[in-house]
Amino acid sequence: QRDRTGKYSIYTEFKKKQIMFHVSTFLPFSEVEEQQLDRKRHLGNDVVIVVFKEPGCKFIPSNLRSHFTQVYIVVEPVLVSDRLSHYRIAVANKDGVAPYGPYIPSPTAEFPQNEETRQFLLTKMINAERSAMFAPSFKEKLRRTRSTLLQDIVSEQS
Fold it and tell me: Which pLDDT does position 11 carry in this prediction?
């Protein structure tokens, strides 16, 4: 079987939770598969996606189509004299995802590169996923997916 998940990933522990990140550039690239379905499969099944974007570039959430992704957290470095100074953080939720904290103080707020910002971002990601799980449209998709997976397991064991 081919390597579908890559050799490397980013992992952390936070408040007794284990967090594994699907990093798009770490997922295997196929020279022959134009659609890159294995990459899309991993990222498209994530409830929360963190996007690190280049300064000044636009990010349009609707360009990434997924039935599962409910929240995009966009992190943009703020450069001063070509050196990292701070980060700007923005969030885009699909309809039905209830508000969750910690809240970004203002659209132009800048966060320093430190442990406090790391904790803010990880807390925001965890709370985003929790809130998304209760979004009416997502709850039904999740129920159907779990039901199908459970039926597959039962079929394999029969």
Answer: 87
Please state, for a pLDDT cut of 70, what percent of the chain lies above it. Answer: 85
pLDDT at 102: 98
Residue 61 confidence (pLDDT): 85
What does the chain look like in DSSP terms, one character per residue? ----S-S--EEEEETTEEEEE--GGGSPPPSS-TT-HHHHHHHHT-SEEEEE--TT----GGGS--SS--EEEEEEEEEETTEEEEEEEEEEE-TTPPP-SSPPS-TT--EESSHHHHHHHHHHHHHHHHHHHT-HHHHHHHHHHHHHHHHHHHHHH-
Query: Is the Cα torsion angle 11, 24, 2, 141 positive or negative in sign?
Result: positive
Interatomic CA distance for residues 48 and 92, integer angstroms: 10
